[in-house]
Amino acid sequence: MSDELVFINLLETSSDKPTLPEGKNGASSKNWVKDKIIGFFKRIKHPFRPSEHRSRQPIHLVDWEEERTRHKRAVIIGSTALVLFGLAVVVGWHKRVTQARGVVLSAMSDHAEYAMGEAANLSDLEPGRAYDLLSGELDRVDGTIASSRDPELKQALTTLKQRISEARDIAAKITPVRPDEYLDLSLVREGARGHALNATGETMYVLDSSSPAVFSVSATHRAATVIGGGDALKGARAIASDDHGAYALTSHAIVEFDSKTLASTTIVTDDGGVWNDPIALAIFGGNAYVLDRATSELYKYTRSSSGDGFGDLRRWLHPGVVPDLSDAIRLAVDGSVWVLTTQGKITKFEQGERTGYHVQWSEALTEPVGLSVPPGGSKVWVLDRGGKRVVAFDRASGSYVGQWTSGMFSDATDLVVSEELKKAFVLVNEKIYEMEIS
Hints:
With 438 residues, this protein is α+β, with helices and mostly antiparallel strands. Helix content is 29%, strand content 32%. The protein folds into three domains: 3-45, no CATH class; 98-172, Methane Monooxygenase Hydroxylase, Chain G, domain 1, CATH 1.20.58; 176-436, TolB, C-terminal domain (Neuraminidase), CATH 2.120.10.30. Strand 12 and strand 13 form a beta hairpin. The protein starts with a helix and ends with a strand.
């Protein structure tokens, strides 16, 4: 007999029968309790058998195709969100970079505009200050370009730099020129080459140290003549001139060439061995001046009363005046004595003493090779071969006046300037070029 039936029989034989509520659907309380007890033991005996009263749950089968679709959709949505986020970051970064670029460019442009305006105002009276002002502005822009990592900012600043450079050229009176060929010495004498140039009035003189020869060239008629040559010119270093003709300086003598008779005469000989390294010669007021850079001395020879030669030499500088002329390359005399050095320094002497003259310009002359101080003129002219330019300075103050630039000046060796004719003549190898000046 089963356990549940034993328990029920015990209930039926019990003399103490409690009053129980009436069962569902009109069934007696006894039957209702019996059903509950039997159901309880069935559940204990078969714990995994679903109850008759428990609703059966449906079994769902997984649709893997739909699952893959949902997964793919989720990946696409996530990727899209990530891309959009990345784009938002990039756009934000680009916006910040653009704003920063605008701030820098605006500040640089405003500063440059102000500087260009100031330079334009300075141009007529102080072109040197205008040049220095805009040169400083160019350096400022260059520094910003070098430190920037923004290509667009670099490009914008490069354009600004070009504008500043053009403004500087105008304000500082920098004039690009294409000099005209004036004369080809090789057509006068085959194989000729010019090394030094000098002029008196409307006649220029060219020294060819390699041939050697001296040429007389008209400054107005494009005509040239060989007025001297031969052994008398051996080792010639410099040339000077006056109304009598041309003078060539060698290592030990000064030779005169008469432009009318074509005669040559040795008028000074360094018999005493005073000269060590004579480098430059000038003729002025009937006197000859020889610059010796080895001794940093300037020697003066006075023309004799007969006019046939020069007297004894004397030291032109006053006692105690000992300048350093070891790098001197050019000499000009117009009452004052002007000396040009390889460093671009111009020194002016008067009555044997150094003056306070100095060039008022921050730009360096990189390779000066020629000096011209026209008699009666207002400027000092320098041929700067390294800078491919001719630069003018005020004769009285040393202030920068202007410059004329040309690529062909890179091979130039000397120049003469006629402020009266408003022309500059530049010697380049075997040719003489002319350009207008103002």
